[in-house]
Amino acid sequence: MTAATPKPPRPAKKKDLMSRIPAGFVRAVLRGHSSLGLAFAALIYLICLSGSIAVFAHEFQRWESAAAPQLTEASPDAVQTAFEGAIAAGGPGVEHVYITLPTSDFPRLLLYVDADEDRQFLADAQGKIAPGGEAAWTEFITRLHINLHLPRTWGGFLVGLIGVALLSSLISGILAHPRIFRDAFHLRLGGSQRLQEADLHNRLGVWALPFHILISLSGAFLGLTTIIVGVLGMAMFNGDVNKVYALFIPAPPVDDPRPAPVLDLRPMYAKLPQDGGRLTYIFTEHPTEMGGAALFNVEQPNRMAGVDSYAFRRDASIYSQQKAVDNNLGEDLLGGMGQLHFGWFGGGIVKIVYFALGLGLTYLAASGVNIWLARRRDKGRPAPGWERAWAATVWGQPAGIAAAAVAGLALASAPAAIGAWLAVSLLFLAAAIRLPATRLSTLGRIATAALTLAAAATHFALRGGLNSADPVAWIVNLSLIAAGAALLLPELRMRRNKADPATAAA
Amino acid sequence: MEDSAPLIPALLALVGAGTGAWMLRKSWGSKDKANRGWLVGGWLLIAASFIRPMLALGSVRGFFIALALVSTAALGVVAANYTVRQAKARAARESLAPEPSNRATTKGRETLRWLLAGPIGMIAAMGVGIAWAALVPGEQQTRLVVGGLIVPVAWGACMAWTLADNRILRATAVLTGVALISFTAAIVKGFA
Q1: Is B166 in contact with A357 (Cβ distance < 8 A)?
Q2: CA-to-CA distance for A282 and A285, rounded, in angstroms?
Q3: Complex-level ipTM
Q4: pLDDT per position as a tens digit, B37-83
Q5: How many Cβ atoms sit within 10 Å of the Cβ of residue B40?
Q6: Residue-wise over A119-130: b if at least 16 C-beta within 10 A, else e?
Q7: Looking at A188-192, A193-197, A248-252, B101-105, which range is the least confident one?
Q8: Test the B interface: residue of A159, A169, A187 with most B CBs within 10 Å
Q9: C or N: which end of chain B has fewer Cβ atoms within 10 Å?
Q10: From the CB of residue A478, how many other CB atoms can be counted at a distance below 10 Å?
Q11: Neighboring chain B residues of A177 at a CB cutoff of 8 Å
């Protein structure tokens, strides 16, 4: 009999980097990830949802102004006529006029007059002020994303804080999931709701991570700029924040408040270099005072922060100019941050991708809470109150935003849009006191679908949807109808199955 | 002149990145070393997906267009290869997924933890950002913007750390120290 030969010890399996993270650390980080996610989930969800929609702000503005004149070019004479017309119609106390010139992305001549009462106008190819320039819904959705309709400074800070919380969740999310890279391609649907949500949450979290970091970092930076500049000014410029801004923007013109005729932009046009750039924006300051001035932004192609700026005095002499090609890294970063955050740098395809990835990020926020709720249920500690409140938030917001679109289109008023959004949001939260979460979700889906379809119908009825020459108005209406139908489809299918169990079984 | 139309380079990048992600998927689950080719090839193809947009649409613009598309293409590959899991009867054992820790805590400690994650973390992060702007050489605008970008990153890291760390007094000491040192250094040096 021979003694059994002992088996050679198995070579130790080499662990990947993430798997070497100690379990105690993972559990601690997961706790932090949960706490942070739960504390800010509703605001992260709302900001991501509104941001995804705001990617199409230009398209929505075209949709709202479907009946207004379309322009591909605007001559200096037409711009001057429109400028004078907008000042005359803008009422007393004109401080600034912002002129957006037509581009392929936004074929309108748009003038925003900052006066005692701020107003916005569109003009035709001759520069004549034209009706139909109201864009209450676009204003609603962009302001909801940028400052949650709170006072600008506080709202911006809150949104910046949410950006930081999102960034922090991304950091802790990666550290708290040691298998996140190993399972990067596993998507298992069906079975337990918690596992399905966790798979979707983690796959979206890992593959869209560069986008998520980009969006949260740029959003946090843009939101926190005011407070960062304020602290910087206090710490290093004896409280003078203007010294910080002066490093990035041309000095304002010398103030001379004596009344004067409206600034003549045409001689300034004549002094712009013909270097292949495209004039996209004119910012005028005190246009009816002797100290009036105008800043012309000329965009150079294929650059993220490719804006050359020329600042003119009233007599059309240049007092400051900055070429994009001479920008340093800081100026380029700052100049490109907004475009990068909103996806306004790569045409329609990038906007669609940003919208889809943005909705993915919105889902990430929603699914995080769903996983927490499902975990509690699995452990025999369900939280029905929180389930109802979360269902009311998740479905109340899209329904509220769709209601704002209907109100904005019908009444052409941003306050009306805000009122409709608030009313629907509160209605859902009130319904959460009595209705179960599943019922709230069904109601929310139906309400969102109905209101989305109503928005398209309102556009057809009141905003010239059927006669619009702008193809974007048609695309938006068709997208709204498709979205409404897609939201209704599961509900209709379920009702049909209930009514005809034999077909359902087959 | 308008920006170059991004559609064709973007579609090429999408196809390249999608193929790259598909190759990575082939290598991912396999323990076979022969599959290393799929891994290397996949990453190379994803890297190559950046080149065409960067050449055709401007280096920075093209890079960020490709970055958004690579994520989308990879998610498309993941979504296209989903599997359906059968619902099982509830297993008696606990889930294998890690669970959040159940640390013993008090109201005071939780308040301090959120103060550290919120205002104290913000002040420390601002200190680091401002110290960067003051102390690091380079163009003034670049120092300011990079310093500004450091603030959310540092604050986010503070949040992640303080909400996870059980040793809350250590976090308090570190964040207070960082805030004091960074602001003092920035003010003493000044901005020039």
Answers
A1: no
A2: 10
A3: 0.92
A4: 899 999 999 999 999 999 999 999 999 999 999 999 999 999 999 99
A5: 13
A6: ebbbbbbebebb
A7: B101-105
A8: A187
A9: C
A10: 11
A11: 98
